[in-house]
Amino acid sequence: MSNDYYKFIHFINRKTGIDLSLYKEAQMKRRLTSLYEKKGFTSFMEFFESLSKNEALLEEFLDRMTINVSEFYRNEKRWEVLQHKILPVLLKENKKLKVWSAACSTGEEPYSLAMVLSQLVRSSQVSILATDIDQNAIDKAKIGLYGERALAEIPPVVRREFFTDQGVFYKVSDEIKRLVDFRQQNLLNDLFDKQFDLIVCRNVMIYFTEEAKDKLYRKFSESLRHGGILFVGSTEHIFNPSKYELESVDTFFYRKLSSSS
After folding, report:
1. pTM higher than 0.85 for the full model?
2. What class of enzyme is it (predicted)?
């Protein structure tokens, strides 16, 4: 079984550029075994043979491989810290912030950022890059339709201002959608832009190996300007931030140290 799996991840890397060896093996193997068994396959290699010939199955595989669980204002108290403590300091330093939502899933996180920022500055001062490995997730994000559950933690005043009721769904306002630029990106392989004021990457690192996490924290640090902030998820404390030229400024918020620090 293991040898079968390792051959599978090697072939997938060659076909798609996605390195599954950087994801925690037990979790990924469980997820993919469940998928191929459901489709009637008996091994990883039999599954790969079919993936090579069936574009729709490959799309489904890529969608299953990525983890698209998200909601607006996830862990609401952290968003309050972002709005009232972190962003005012950043806005004193730059009137227009360079912001990136990394592994943005179906758009709840970057749209939350856009809503928070639009309450602090004019929309002309807001521009957010949002990236994810899963093109299907990005396509859903661009549509901007969400069920009730995704909106559970949104403050009522924000919900009223930025959403319209569409029956069983809620639609993000065009004003907010215009502030976010969605692009496909592989965090582990692709180059990052530089000089971000704020990078948000939450509840993604838990799926990666320690080696992959280390690589990503280094890349994020290099992409922040001095004084810029990295905002991580509630299970993703960085236990030795100085290793990445970062310092903790609040729970789950880390500032890039200046060279003189």
Report:
1. no
2. transferase
